[in-house]
Amino acid sequence: MPLHDKFGRRITDVRVSVTDRCNFRCVYCRSADPENYRPEDELLSWDELVGVARVLHGLGLEKVRVTGGEPMVRPGVIEFISRLRDLGFHDLSMTTNGQLLAESCDRLIRAGLHRINISLDSLDAEKFERVTRTRKFQSVMDGIHAAQASSLRPVKVNAVLVRGLNDDEVEAFAELARSAGITMRFIEFMPLDADRHWSRAVVVPAAEVRSRIHARWPLVQVPHAPSETARKYRFADGAPGEIGLIAPVTEPFCGHCSRIRITADGKLRTCLFSLQDHDLRPFLRNGASDLDLADFIKEKVLEKEHGHRINEPDFVPPSRTMVFIGG
Ligand code: SAM
Ligand code: SF4
């Protein structure tokens, strides 16, 4: 019986966060102040992560996205990807800030990675520094070029838009999509930042992005699977590249959600905005069988939240922020 919830949604995708550490401090994600990382022994070992993945594969999951924190900062992540491939997952992807990508791209592909999402929130080096609080703009651009030159497809570049910070760059990003033939995705800012600076006023609605790009380069909608997070568009003039709009705040897509998440410290999260997560470590560390773990996961997934409730008056953001959940 495939993994499903009580609303009949089939669960086919898992996002696995392999670390809560990151070499960037993006303003919409982490705080400028040092945070307390989880002690090493609270994080799942690679063997434990593979153990969870094996059970999820047995439950019919097909897609794994490796994320973090920044997945590339944890030594051993490339071997982990090859172990996921050996388990038989047919869609393996990673979300990365791209800083360490150029030097590792070939090894990631040899390990079995199929697809990659790279975050880039500004095309201006100085503004990039303000957003990420690093001086790594060129390394990220090198990472994007390395991915473009490799067999990874599609290469998706993700920008989180924040009003007053980088929303003046929508057209420039669209131009990058056209000139480089990449998929440029715009993500609405969600209330998951460590500084709790999120407000509706700084969310840039996907509809605005769509109409601004459409006014300059007419767009044609591309069909997408219902469970996909992005609404996709191509350029009507036949230019290469694609635009993706991810609008969890203004156009929620919870009704077709097919995702669950595993955090680096071994918690199952059935929604990005879950107020409660479910600890898998006791199963992994106290000798439980795969069957016991599978039964626990099935029971918790059945109770997956109906939706994220960001737009409800009594919305409460989760205590864990994006860097600790895994995007
Ligand atoms: N470090 C990697 C990266 O930045 O790509 C992977 C982890 S990051 C948490 C995953 C994705 O979440 C990135 O695309 C990032 O831009 C996005 N993200 C982080 N905080 C967010 C927020 N508050 N709202 C929307 N997206 C966010
Ligand atoms: Fe790090 Fe990614 Fe969060 Fe930026 S968005 S601070 S790169 S985890």
Q: In angstroms, what is the radius of gyration?
A: 19 Å
Terminal CA distance: 27 Å
- Give me the CATH fold name: TIM Barrel
Taken from the alpha-carbon principal axes, the silhouette is globular
What oligomeric state do these chains adopt?
Answer: single chain
Detail the topology: elements first, then pairings.
Blueprint: E1 13-17, H1 46-58, E2 63-67, H2 77-87, E3 91-96, H3 101-111, E4 115-119, H4 125-132, H5 137-149, E5 155-161, H6 170-180, E6 183-188, H7 206-216, E7 219-222, E8 230-235, E9 242-246, E10 259-262, E11 267-269, E12 278-279, H8 281-285, H9 290-302, H10 322-325
Parallel strand pairs: 1-2, 1-10, 2-3, 3-4, 4-5, 5-6, 6-9
Antiparallel strand pairs: 7-8, 8-9, 10-11, 11-12
Helix pairs in contact: 1-2, 1-9, 2-3, 3-5
Residues 22, 24-26, 29-30, 68-70, 97, 119, 322-323 line the site of iron/sulfur cluster.
Structural summary, described in words:
The protein is of the alpha/beta class and 327 residues long. The protein has one domain (13-325): Aldolase class I (TIM Barrel). 31% of the residues lie in helices and 18% in strands. It is built from ten helices and twelve strands. A twelve-stranded mixed sheet has the order 7-8-9-6-5-4-3-2-1-10-11-12. It is globular. The model has no long low-confidence stretch (mean pLDDT 95). Iron/sulfur cluster (SF4) binds at residues 22, 24-26, 29-30, 68-70, 97, 119, 322-323.
